[in-house]
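ingest -> validate -> predict -> emit
validate: passed (alphabet ok, no gaps, 168 aa)
predict: started
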Amino acid sequence: MPLRDTLARVDADLAAGRVPVARQRLRGLVSSFPDDLVVRRRLAEVYRLYGDPAEAGRWMYLEEDREAAETSAFEARYPTAPQRMRALAWQGPESLAPTAFAREQLAAVRVACSDAMGRPVDWDAVPSAAEADGTGSTVTGFLAGAGCLVAVLAFLAIWVNGLVALFD
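emit:
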């Protein structure tokens, strides 16, 4: 569905009091049109209806006329640069941002994330939560290994039990 049609549906949803539906439509639009600041602004407005300043700040983060309290709430909810980078849900290079302020904000978050990760990162390869926390490969590897070990032991127990029953 074209952007304009979906925004018209958002307006109709809001007029009918279907705020959660409008929020879902706008979240989908942000996924499809991450560089459209109008969609982000509309999503921030919906989160204001919910009384959620952190989420309003999240979606207004790239706007120069953002509310300082909402920005602070966003930064408190997502305290690290990798968390902010994931939360902003940007795709592609900063040059796609329609304003100089948005490009500067995106670049600052990306550089801070690169510094935190100790390697260059870009918007097309945002670090996962586990990778950003440094727990990804160790914990995931351990759990995968433990799961495989349990599966093999269970298979062996069933196989041995079958053999014993066969020769009894």
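The chain has two domains: 3-129, 135-168.
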